[in-house]
Amino acid sequence: MGKRIHNFSAGPAALPLPVLEEIRDELLDYKGAGMSIMEISHRSKYFDDVINGAVDRTKKLLGMGDDFHVLFIQGGASLQFCMVPMNLALEGRPVDYINTGTWSTKAIKEAQIQGRDVRIIASSEDRDFSYIPRGFQVDGEASYLHFTSNNTIKGTQWPEFPEAGDVPLVCDMSSDFMSRPIDPRPFGLIYAGAQKNIGPSGCAMVIIRRDMLDRIPEGLPTMLKYSTFSEKNSLYNTPSCFVIYVIGLVLKWLEEEIGGLEAMETINREKARILYDLIDGSGFYRGTAEKASRSLMNVTFRLPNEDLEDRFVGEAAKKGLGGLKGHRSVGGCRASIYNATTLESVRALADFMSHFEKTQG
Amino acid sequence: MGKRIHNFSAGPAALPLPVLEEIRDELLDYKGAGMSIMEISHRSKYFDDVINGAVDRTKKLLGMGDDFHVLFIQGGASLQFCMVPMNLALEGRPVDYINTGTWSTKAIKEAQIQGRDVRIIASSEDRDFSYIPRGFQVDGEASYLHFTSNNTIKGTQWPEFPEAGDVPLVCDMSSDFMSRPIDPRPFGLIYAGAQKNIGPSGCAMVIIRRDMLDRIPEGLPTMLKYSTFSEKNSLYNTPSCFVIYVIGLVLKWLEEEIGGLEAMETINREKARILYDLIDGSGFYRGTAEKASRSLMNVTFRLPNEDLEDRFVGEAAKKGLGGLKGHRSVGGCRASIYNATTLESVRALADFMSHFEKTQG
Prior knowledge:
Two copies of one chain form a homodimer.
Chain A: E1 6-7, H1 17-25, H2 45-62, E2 68-73, H3 76-88, E3 95-99, H4 102-113, E4 118-123, E5 145-148, E6 150-151, E7 156-157, E8 169-172, E9 187-193, E10 204-209, H5 226-231, H6 241-258, H7 261-280, E11 286-287, E12 298-302, H8 306-318, E13 321-322, E14 333-336, H9 343-360
Parallel strand pairs in A: 1-13, 3-4, 3-5, 5-8, 8-9
Antiparallel strand pairs in A: 2-10, 6-7, 9-10, 11-12, 12-14
């Protein structure tokens, strides 16, 4: 095996090394089955244990009881953008959205395609999505209030979730899912593409509060109804077995090696602090998000000019620090520091940034 | 590593051993990237090569030109059951279906949920789906003619595809895709869940003829339009990267190790011949499908009684022959012998069957 790099990719992203080693070691023979996990029936006892283990661990980590269902649905967060209004919009009632960037905008567009009465009750578009809106009103009329908890492209994150009274929150938590403890009670539905914090790409985890299942209208296609998944423990058809298996291993690592979500948040805060302190103490690097709205997952920053940014990304790559280019839609630099990115990797990046500033600044 | 079994599962199913070994060997460091393939951005050169390689190999193996697009869509064949009529039904024209079992029935149901004018122009339901219909009429009115090329549960397979004139064929080829050469020209669309013949579960391959893209109506959700996938080479959002990577390796094995689809068909015919000859030469085992409609992929058979069937499946498992239980909806026994199931495995099964007959019969 060659040397592993420090991986700051925005997703698909770093996975915990012990998880990768376990996958490798049992790839040809899963727990004595004489088959790879990829070759085992989703109707087997082996796979029942895999999927039930992932569901149980999710509920335990998030402090959820039996009023929540944990579902595995293919198609990523992008398919959820259309499934959410299809399933949860109430007849004659608006659907409320908060727009904090590219992914919120896409979620809004899918609700509009369906002809829903979409109200954008808050937005940070006026300042290029560089902050999380505050002081907006929620009037209690809406079917739900949708927001994006962390914005990978602009590097912002909700420090606290919006208050919406009796209106259920619906959250695209793709890029900070399982990075900190949450109070699940206000959420009607949480969804997260796996490929940032909990596994490889190819599956979204969807957590739905039991009462939301009563809203699902007649006549939806079978594969677009949440009830199809909740009634069959995500086994109506063949699920993304390998991805669910890896998610289960990542959650085990999170619980047993890291010690749960409070411990994970402490580590994540320390990783972010190292990079933001370096940026703030520098006249060379400049953070792009408003300080109070900064993401603990995606640290976005600029250098004095684009030439320097290109050189920064290129030299970093040569030193084994990968994935630091900003999203193609905004440019600049971005260090994604999800759960599996280690403190050691962050310190290596900080050292490189200090060194680069001294030699180029 | 423990001993690998002979795997006759219906899907997820056996994968070629050299493919599994390659995955294992590069699991922590994909081609010197210093990352697992699961950790690499879908916008990277590495992944471009993966997905383009899989597309190119598919077209080469199937003898397809630029008039076909190869797409990777999550959600399995079950999501295709609803996407097909959504995208391909023409205004004011019926959609024709042939019903050959469980999967056809599900496809028909999804078209009916959408309120399409569904005509079932042929069916083998009268004799428990034990044969492939013949002598039906296609009148040229339909938007498309949908059929299931191989029926995993009942063990039947179309020996030749239906003739439909100018009506484009739409085929669920999940369980015999890439098992034999086909003439692609009559097909408007082919779809196949990966987990039988070409990879792990979590992705369907969809092949769409260019002219079908003109049918897609306005107003569909973005993730349910084939054009979203064809315009972005299946990279509108993050695809199922790992599954696509494995599919690419399986197709490489099929082309380079096996020698393409004609060579594959020869091997598949020999595997099926061994088992059907044994069944036909026995007074103990009884095939459940009509001889002219027998599947080369799923050999379904019964023993004199259910007790013997249970004992057969149990003793086979002890000898390292797994996955021989029939589908839970029909009982009996089934040996699935997809591309990756070796002649050696089939011979081991035949030996066991002969031995079991002698000692129990």
